[in-house]
Amino acid sequence: MSLPVPTMARPPVGVVGLGQLGGSLAAALVAAGREVRGWDVDPAAREAAAARGVRVTRELAGVVVLAVPLPDTAAALDGIDVDPAATVTDVGSVKEPVLATVGAALGGRFVGGHPMAGTERSGHAATDPALFRGARWALCLEPGTELPRWLRAAEVVLDAGAEVVPVTAAEHDAAVAAVSHVPHLLAAALAAAAGEAGPLALALAAGSFRDGTRVAGSDPAFVTAMVEGNAGPTAAALDRVLAQLRRPWPELVAAGHGVRTADPGRRTVRVPLDRVALLALGRAGGAVTRRLAAFVEGWVPQP
Ligand SMILES: NC(=O)c1ccc[n+]([C@@H]2O[C@H](COP(=O)([O-])OP(=O)(O)OC[C@H]3O[C@@H](n4cnc5c(N)ncnc54)[C@H](O)[C@@H]3O)[C@@H](O)[C@H]2O)c1
CB under 6 Å to ligand 1: residues? Predict the structure, then answer.
């Protein structure tokens, strides 16, 4: 019989950047009983994290999570004293550029990650310990990723309340271009076009405009770093959207409705601790929900 990995054995977690993502992760992990240390260049963010039970220090060990703005990720460990045995992961919205910088410097010790959670707010005031509950969190399994470190990072994600989607950085970047980066551009385009339509149009804007443009309220620097950091896949995904817009409207509306309302259900699966099997789970649209000693438990969409 396989038993869950005991919580006692879990290493400390160090979070660099205690803003919306890092502050929320630190708070969720404190609530889950993990030892959490953290650092932020902003004293107000450090103070807020300390009030939530985070030990503020630059000496980090165990699993170290980089949660700084994307352009600052490559230099995030400058001035931080990281245990040489630590596993390092990140939460950046694009994975190939982080793999090329942090990953190249750390080799198999680095596990790229991306939680599919967050709001248009930013900074430590946007901290929400429930931010990751039930969310998908992509964790990169490259050929050089050390599997025991990937599993340690996965345990952190599971303790934060999220589900782990095993991916490669390239697959991740192509997928999120379609479901995150293009939606940010479309939200900006919708909002800009409505602005040109004038004050009457904006006065009459209601639910569909609010939902379609919500992320246009995000910090422009954050969105720009994200789409420019994933320019190739985002341009390709945008071309597919433009091709859809050229279809006859009834056909387009029916196709979109079909995808948005499909509910395939879920089937529980057990997956061996093996890179190929874990990546197959991610490609099938599934996720890991529990780590056990000899395998992980998760689900795939019901065929
Ligand atoms: N906001 C989202 O919706 C979202 C979703 C998924 C992933 N992400 C990714 O999460 C990361 C952080 O985003 P966020 O929304 O939490 O940003 P944020 O602005 O809320 O927080 C970033 C924090 O990092 C701190 N910081 C900056 N440089 C630092 C450094 N060198 N050392 C220590 N602290 C530093 C800032 O002071 C700030 O507190 C980004 O890489 C982003 O791509 C964001």
Answer: 16-22, 39-42, 45, 67-70, 72, 76, 91-93, 114-115, 118, 122-124, 126, 226
Over the chain, what is the mean pLDDT?
A: 96
Which residue reads 């596993």 in tokens? Answer: 87
CATH superfamily label, 13-167: NAD(P)-binding Rossmann-like Domain (3.40.50.720)
Instruction: Answer for the pair 233, 173: CB distance below 8 angstroms, yes or no.
Output: yes
Question: How wide is the angle at C-alpha 207 spanned by C-alphas 177 and 230, nearest 5°?
Answer: 10
7 pLDDT above the threshold of 60: no
User: How do strand 36-39 and strand 55-56 relate by DSSP bridges?
Assistant: parallel
Domain over 172-246 is classified CATH 3.90.180.10 = no
- Nearest of 87, 71, 69, 59 to residue 18 by alpha carbon: 69
Question: Ligand 1 centre from 19 Cα, in Å?
Answer: 6
Which residue, chain included where needed, has tokens 């290493």? 11
pTM of the model: 0.94
Residues 190, 69, 210: CA angle, nearest 5 degrees: 25
